[in-house]
Design brief:
heterodimer, A: 492 residues, alpha+beta, five-stranded mixed beta sheet, four-stranded antiparallel beta sheet, 17 strands, globular, B: 249 residues, alpha/beta, three-stranded antiparallel beta sheet, 10 strands, 14% strand
Chain lengths: 492, 249
Amino acid sequence: MISLQVQNNQRFHIEDIQFLTQSDFYDSVSEGLSNGYRMIGLFPVDKKLKHKIISLLVDSSSSSIHIIGVEFQPDKLEFKSIANQFPQTNYFECELAENDGFKLIDHPWLRPVRKQNKILGNKPYQFYQLEGDEVHEVAVGPIHAGVIEPGHFRFQCHGELVYHLEINLGYQHRGVETMMLNANQQHKLILSESIAGDTVIGHTQAHCGVIESLTDTQVGLRAQVIRSLAEELERIAMHLSGLGGVANDVGLAIIAASYGRLRTLVINSLAILCGSRFGRGLFIYGGVRFDFDDSIINQLMSNLEIVKKDVVAINNFLFSSTGALTRFENTGIVKNDVAQEIGLVGIAGRASGIEGDTRINFPYGAYRYFPVSLITLPTGDVFARARLRALEIDESLRFIFEQFQNIPGGEIKSEFGNEEPNSGVISIVEGWRGEIVHTAITDDTGKLIQYKIKDPSFNNWYGLSLALRKTAISDFPVINKSFDLSYAGHDL
Amino acid sequence: MIDAIKLRILQGDPIIHDVKNASLPKLFRGLPKIENKNCSDGCNKCVEVCPTNAIKLNPVTIDLGKCLFCPLCEEACPENIIHFTNEYKIASGTLDSLLVNSEIEKISVERASEKIRNYFGRSLKLRQISAGGCNGCELELNALSNVNFDMGRFGIEFVASPRHADGIVLTGPITQNMAKATEICYDAVPNPKIIILVGTCAISGGIFQDSEMTQRKFLAKNKIDLFIPGCPPHPLTFINGLLDWLDKK
């Protein structure tokens, strides 16, 4: 396998990437994927020059990222699909076709990713359809019943049973990646806060990771710890919100309300720390904007003590309720082999027994010095995804209280320089939902020529489709909530 | 059963009883206070750092319809003219009253017309449309229904169908891909109906004002009743905006 091997947040030179012939490229990528590597990106090095493509594969066991380059003839952008053999590459290939005009050869399932119909020559996308007696189709969205983001869902049903679900997204597409290339530095940071408003800390952590590595900025330990504390607060808040959601979807209002109360305490803690309930404004290049003092620590500690104590009783009630468990267990299953094949990440992956957590496999920031434990569950059903989130809350609380015992001293901001020319950085972060990847590449003046974002939802939406197979359509809300995926993060 | 009662007792009394006088953390960035001081000669720093061109000089004026409430201008100003206060009552019925300069100490919402207050004063059902919102505003709107803010006690609720709604609450800069759905949804709401814009993206495009992927014709065609600025707006900004507008105690 011919590749350039780098680590998380390690700067590399573009000239170190070997651009292979097409057959060598397919051999290398296939070899990597056969060895259990996972694809995290497939895009041109320069957004304007489409014919030089890199593929990013990660190997969790050795914490390494492999960059495999390939050069096409500029007038013949034809990509031979490997999605039949490796289904996890399917969506990356669709994205390549849609964004960069590649023609996919032998691709199993060409569908729009964000820009409706562009990929199909402006012809409307035809959903797969079931034929026969007593079959029917249910179309939902883009606007859903609740206060949530837009997306279109198409169910093919026979009676109550769903045989196939297609999820058609792109309604939230705001052009974030393109805007990143033209924005000035401060503008970029704020843009990264708005990639997905529920994962502000996760995405800014990844964004700061790439920009700081491109500029050789060292972030002080105190700032790294504050960043990680914020990341764990965000994780706890969103896990509480998700657990409240699944409880609500099975009709347990008292549980939903209880989780909601605790979530308020956690996001209010973030506001005490940085003025925003979602952590906006906390991150700056080279560190963080706001520091702790004893009064802030005390307020946070007293809020989190309540969460730590009360969440036990609420979890016990939820996970011992027969009514809830009958709805959760064996519902919306993604088996481990399927999860591996389609490349599930984050909480959905770990609930299907995939041992993957960026904080452990590709440690960054404070997680390099203060590790967290890996939590997985084997069953891949709604129960596993919900239970896993409850367990992760405990682990995040443990991490936070451990840090409060001994917060390192030092500066919270460091000097920040200019972007190195002809360089690239890949930054991987474990957002609460899963693996966030930001990749930035600069030209010979240090200006960005490519900025690529991958939210965990990009991998996991297909998992939701598969989880619905042979499941009653009435279970869709609770399965959907157990995945808890982002529309804005996917649509960019 | 006994466990459910225990859980209810554990809940205690989390509701914010007085939504008009609740106080937010010191660092919360709400209504900016602009000192009546002169800028140093030729200084343009706040205008330069502002990511959304929300600031004009002579006199220093911040447009809350564009402001992201990031503290960049506050940090950049060498004369310490700009301070963000934790005042959260910043909703308004007109774009003009979102322009804050040194003479503005508070922003108040003008009462809605008598007709609107008669129609919606006691019960207001809203259909939310997320048209490119990043899920920040959506989460804060969801928070309005939780046990802390409990907007339902004021007769204001979100409903699933536009047919059941008295108006729409729009978040996000309105992406091209959501432009049509937004129109269809609004058309489905029976008359009389209102439009509330929540968040800087909806009001001005916010950080996405230069994006080529937005399509904001819908806003030019229709009268907007209420603007709720913020990135995202605090739930109390939304509640107070509506209560004042509907003249509720």
